[in-house]
Amino acid sequence: MTTGSTRDDSSVQSPVAAFDFVIVGATGDLTMRKLLPAFFEQFCRGRIAVGTKIIGAARSDLTDEAYRQRAKEGLQQFAASAKSAPDKIEAFLPFLHYVSLDMSDRHADWTRLTSLLDQDEGRSRVFYVATAPRLYVPTAEAIAHNGLITDTTRLVLEKPIGTDLTSADAINDGVGKHFREEQVFRIDHYLGKQTVQNILALRFANPVLERIWDADSIACVQITAAETVGVGKRGPYYDTAGALRDMVQNHLLQVLCLVAMEPPTALSATDLRDEKLKILRALKPMTSEGVARDTIRGQYVAAAANGEQIPGYLEDLGTPASHTETWLALRTEIRTPRWAGVPFYIRTGKRMARKETEIVIQFRPQPWPVFQDTPEPGFLILRIQPDEGVSLSLSSKDPTAPGFRLRETQLDVSYPQAFGVRYPDSYEDLLMAAVAGDQVLFIRRDEVTAAWQWVEPILKGWAEDVRPMETYAAGTQGPASSDALLARDGFAWKESAV
């Protein structure tokens, strides 16, 4: 089912006021794959005004021309509009500048960067720190030392914010000595996804859903973020993080908050984040017994699938041993009247059977069976990626069967078809929101703290091996014990067709 009028997603929009945007770590993979393509897409839509400067800063000794050539190659490979608008790339490149500078070194020569920055203190100035987290505080200190902080300066920090509560506090304290909280933008690219933001619209703009969005109508909630790829080039980082730190502490807890939160008073940064914080603080604390009972961790091993041999994690990593989880599933509850007794399940992993990120809302069955062959209870499935959309399963009379037999049918909406647009990459909204100083899509410090406080007992329990590591064959949905986690409550994972 598709609805809505079709429009061209490249339609020109009004440009924002010219701004300065400094990318710290400008030669890295994130910059070339995500940040510059995001700015290019916004340029194609008319949102980048004349006079804007996108300044790359890194240690590599490059000229503006050499950096622009490298950016051009990245745009040709990763920008969605590059093939349809190749001439736009040449028009976009003059907005890019490059500075050879270690921005974590306050005593380096900052003259070139300072000369590029506009001296109008009312102009938006953004520093996007796309480096290792250990450099966040030195970079903030160096920016302050060189007098580059104005009232309209923003500092964007990539996740992860620390590896535990202590390191997160150290980063936030160090950055907070130089930047006010309203100037710090902790980015979580999941919040930039249109489909994640649409959770708010579905819930709070559709009374028919909000009125059944509670324990009286909902039996359980499943959140799955599955990838078919292995760790790839991220192996060295991933082996120090694992699935819990890499996906749950930030992305999936944020998704859970949007699903479970109470309606905010207004769609403002303060109100929205206040409600998310309440959910984080209402999560049932994980004890050692809870970690053993309600969490599962796994690591993929080599397996044959689709006629090819898929390497295991240790082969991908190139090491003989590792205690890092590449997959996990967990069960939790939210201690609020709305969600009393409703289990929330989170599952995420590498080398799974299919790539998908989705939320499954399972409704409670009828208290008494009117029909003898009633299908399983209804499901509302919110597809975050890759097939962005929403589907609702309903029981309908089967016109091909004799008598009054029922069959499950689907009401399905594909968002790209419904709106006739290319769904933008999550960084497009996030970068422009940072320029505008809008923190709605960013994480507040107390959210980071609350998330780490909930996650740390799991990390501690795993370090003490209260829940031993399991293995699963690459190309599957994880260890068999994950089915038992739900079966204990009378549920099963809602799997999409392979």
Structural summary, described in words:
This protein has helices at 29-44, 64-78, 86-92, 111-116, 136-145, 165-176, 194-204, 207-210, 235-260, 269-282, 288-294, 313-317, 415-419, 426-436, 445-463, 481-487, and strands at residues 20-24, 53-58, 96-100, 125-129, 153-157, 184-186, 218-226, 295-301, 303-305, 308-310, 327-332, 344-349, 356-363, 379-385, 389-397, 406-414, 470-473. By secondary structure, it is an alpha/beta fold. The protein has two domains: 20-158, 3-Layer(aba) Sandwich (Rossmann fold), CATH 3.40.50; 191-421 and 445-487, Dihydrodipicolinate Reductase, domain 2 (2-Layer Sandwich), CATH 3.30.360. The radius of gyration is 24 Å and the shape is globular. Strand 14 (379-385) and strand 15 form a beta hairpin.
Write the layout of secondary structure elements.
Blueprint: E1 20-24, H1 29-44, E2 53-58, H2 64-78, H3 86-92, E3 96-100, H4 111-116, E4 125-129, H5 136-145, E5 153-157, H6 165-176, E6 184-186, H7 194-204, H8 207-210, E7 218-226, H9 235-260, H10 269-282, H11 288-294, E8 295-301, E9 303-305, E10 308-310, H12 313-317, E11 327-332, E12 344-349, E13 356-363, E14 379-385, E15 389-397, E16 406-414, H13 415-419, H14 426-436, H15 445-463, E17 470-473, H16 481-487
Helix pairs in contact: 1-2, 1-14, 5-6, 6-15, 9-10, 9-15, 10-15
